[in-house]
Write a structure and sequence with these properties.
alpha+beta; D-Maltodextrin-Binding Protein, domain 2; five-stranded mixed beta sheet; disordered N terminus
Amino acid sequence: MQSMIRLGNRGFNRRRTLGVLAALAAGITLAGCGSSEANSEAKAGAASIDGPIEKPNLTLGFIKLTDMAPLAVALEKGFFTEEGLNVRLEPQANWKVLLDGVIGGQLDAAHMLAGQPIAATIGYGTKADLIAPISLDLNGNAITVSNRVWDMIRDDLPEENGRPVHPISASHLKPVVEQFEAQGRPFNMGMVFPVSTHNYELRYWLAAGGLSPGFYTDGDVTGTVDADVKLSVTPPPQMPATLEAGTIEGYCVGEPWNQQAVSMGIGVPVITDDQIWNDNPEKVLGLREDFAERYPATIAALLRAIIKAQQWLDADDGVNREEAVEILSRPNYVGANADVIAASMTGYFTFEKGDTRPAQDFNVFFNKYAGYPYYSDAIWYLTQMRRWGQVASDKSDDWYFTTAQAVYRPDLYMAAANQLIEDGVIAEGDVPTTDGFRDPQSGFIDGITFDGRAPNDYLSRFSIGLKQGQRVTAAGISEN
């Protein structure tokens, strides 16, 4: 379809046609996966992206993490201005404050955890109709343990050339957890938010190593029922200080806060998230659905600017990454030391001082179709919410499909991306030919393949996690 579209006349009418067909294509391709007439009608906003920008002045929120880079770059390199936007970037204290700011209208959109708009749409924690029209990056997180824990597991790790072999399995933590339990102490680890990728990655890693990270009862946000390892929430920039204080024995967080622990000499990263799930989606641009409907040309301009920034970040094998590091190190963005940010963002990752390894794809912003908001990505988050009890009861495959369609909006992404293709800014091959689903993915640490078209079958494959017909109560797991 895209090749046929690009043979038409150039100019305003052609762009409108691109938007119309992108919206129609999004509805048509999912007809066999639970799409509905109401859903197709809701996506008509993608057809109205031409004309003057309705709201040129925008305020976007972010958390001080390396993966907010597309927003900082879009501002500093003038991509927002090129698209007729005057954007203000405002750091937020934590993910809850950021979410409330978007829902309440103080923020027009935000650098958001991929799970946040999904959770809000299904009413977990907060109920609001949010959408994600673009994914901001792939990978970018790691799990770090305290020096004390590292010293307890280090001698048992397999080695190659005197260095630990990665990825490191959570099974090496089992004797440590048992020792803590024998001493009457909980083994505590931190993550950034109950519906964060970090929470699900940490849980995935622990469960793959035979440790239960606990389950959520209906309406509960602690998730500690039947837990071998207790997980708690800490804002990303506070992770190193919380680890140093001994409140937690490890954490899962985005950069540069794993590298900060290495720099401070207080902890050791044991695994990066691409080793848990290779090329996993991380952050999204989250905003209210009614905002996108009210300001379609504004959203298209916003997405075009971000796509340009993503392209700049991955251009020519990372030639611009050093400049990106300097931008991010400024106090109004991430505010960490440039050397700490560079330790994971310039094609390498430092596990310990003296143990820096190539990691070309640790941060991916544009390559591998990183910006495309796949329905299957949203479905993966929903499966993990069900696996750990945040979705309290069984759901049909169709529920997973329709929920993903309500939140992830590839129609909006493609409408903006097609304009950039027509202008020669990006190439036709820079966007996927897809029905919104990735092919089955096998790059998980436990060897289980994820197929977004079969979410309930996927859930049945885990040895630790809720099974069909199970619910979580304060007393433990019960059958319906």
